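As described in the Methods, two query proteins were run sequentially through the folding procedure within a single session, without resetting any intermediate state between them. The first query and its resulting structure tokens are shown here.
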Amino acid sequence: MIDTIIQILKQKDIAGWILKQEKTKSEELFFVKDKLDQNRLCETNEYHVTVYVDFEEDGERYKGNAEALISAGDSPAEIEARLDQVIRSARFVKNRWYPLATNASQDVEKPEEISNIAILKSQYDALHEAIFTDYGTKSKVNSVEIFAVDGTIRLVTSTGTDVTFPSNRFMFELVTDCQGNEESVEIFNDYTFGILDIDQIRSIVQEQLRNTEARGIAVKAPKLDNINIILRGAAVEELLQCYITQATDEAVYNRYSRAKRGERFNAPDALQSLNIRMEPNLSHAVSKAPLDRDGVILHPYTLYSDSVVENFRTTQQISSYMGEKNIGCPTPFVVEGSDTSYDDFLKEDYLEIVVFSSFISSPVEGDFGGEYRLAKLVQNGKATYITGGSISENLFEAQNRFIFSKESEHRQNSITPKAILIRKQD
């Protein structure tokens, strides 16, 4: 199939193409309580083709592009018809001309080949115990859905790149419930990792069970003014992702970034220095990859060093417009913490957001926050679980009051601090 697609592409009057083949095999388990209700196997094989067309209008050179999804069952005639359609579409896209990416060699650092399906089969009993054991809480596991996925990606380009690498992930959806003081409460969360890790899953299940029990006794959130706020969980990665976006060439080129190479991003008197690096092959990350979508071979690099912008995360198109060297656009990243431990965050009054109903962060305006389902409020030594409140902050106004915990956690595409403390205003 892939040879058929390439052969058709080579016959077309186009400037170039990128072909990505994604093959996956998954084992899926569905539990009600601790009983296996259903299991199934699923295999997919898809081809994503991006075509590039060069053309001129009124003396200006353009490079248009468009994408096609091709299924493994498509006939050669269907493939050609679909490619002809996207080639026509590409001629209506007026991107200023730029060269396509080329690689001097195919020597890439590929992610380690690990089979989540094999781990699931060999550690099934340990996984079952980690999820369904009695941890002594009033809350219990209601249902679980597990997806162990093994896959490969092959990236072939018209400029000579041809690399195949593994792409695996492990996902589980966990529903826990508990009889609360006034009504039954339920918490649903889904978690995604690159690698099945029993210890990490055990920790997550215990925490969600504790949170569900706490949600059952939570009271309506009071009005709060100027208190230390602690962010935990997925919100930490999502908020810190704003720094990645701000230092991406597209944001800089389109002037919605405040990042300037060689300059500090936060104030000199900020409580926390920014030390952030891109790690394309971060071992546990879902989106680890040795190449980006343009076919550029990826290597680790520093984004911020002591709050100074060292590099921009670059794409082939925009870096060429900016006259920048294209060092690639990886997804996984690492953020260094401070010398302050998470336990030190708890020595003053604080509001710790445990579970958001929805957490929203805007990397452009900098606004972040949302309504929370569960938070822990500590005032004058008294701890109360509360629900139904919300926070609203702005990254650019609050970042000088950030402190990152010394401890870190593995999250979906990062290693990031366990918690972020937003100190109250003086």
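Immediately afterward, the second query was submitted; its sequence and tokens are:
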Amino acid sequence: MASEEFRLVSPKISNEGKLPRKYTEEGQGAQKNLSPPLEWYNIPQGTKSLALVVQDIDAPEPSDPIVPWVVWVVANIPPTLKGLPEGFSGKEGEAGEDYASVQEGYNDSKLPGWRGPKVTKDKLLEAIEGHVLGEAELVAIF
């Protein structure tokens, strides 16, 4: 029997892929810097650590109309965790012992990962090169 596909989901993102406004920085109801809850399933066997890169793939940039924008970088997620709770970002130290090794990095706004190490998307991808057992993708729109 083949194993199921490695999946990343959020219970707050609708079936149409709509990211609720409260997780953005725009409009009524926005709660700046509130990360959505994420869950993953069917982690590849042998996984020692998980990493997460969240990008806005069509963010406008004054010098270039459409560029991917790194919103969130998270490293050292234990494979024993089944996800990250809503509002985890910036509160990893308060989330409990199970989350103690999780580290947040810098996003493209050049903001530190709320007490995290100086990890960027490029440094993370370089560090995991040759060690990736699987990838999962979640697409949302707003």
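The chain has one domain: 7-128. We note this only descriptively and draw no conclusion about the first query from it.
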